Amino acid sequence: xxxxxxxxxxxxxPMAARAIAALQGSGADPVVxxxxxxxxxxxFGVEVVADRWPGEGPxxxxxxxxxxxxxxxxxxxxxxxxxxxxxxxGDLDALxxxxxxxxxxxxxxxxxxxxxxxxxxxxWRPMLGxxxxxxxEAGQRRLDHLLELGSVVVVPAxxxxxxxxxxxxxDLDHPAR
Length: 177
Description:
5 helices, 8 strands
């Protein structure tokens, strides 16, 4: 994108603000942003924590989120990517409900219909944090490593188009818009 995606606007609203609204609408409290420009992100009124392993892949950012001080003691941690601007609270509510219903699962993710595991968005048990940190420190970088750590509930996406991510400007012209 050539700049911090969290600050890219979709219909006049920065993607970070959209993610925060979806998380808060689903009852997430507190909401914590991981990585990025802390000064620029401070304007959104939520805590910003530095990525413990910047540039080391999505599993590293995920590990930072699960172990962030205000989240580590939660029952469930919702993790969403700021580059999924069409995500809504209802999409996250379905994940929380699925995880709550399966006490043996470590997490619940939406099936994006792409034939591959993508852990975002997801509802996760924070007790998973130390195992994810260990995986990152052992060189793991991909979110599909989470499947090796325990049972993950895969929930049919309520609105598959809403889970699309934005990686380049052309992605902003998406049907979910």
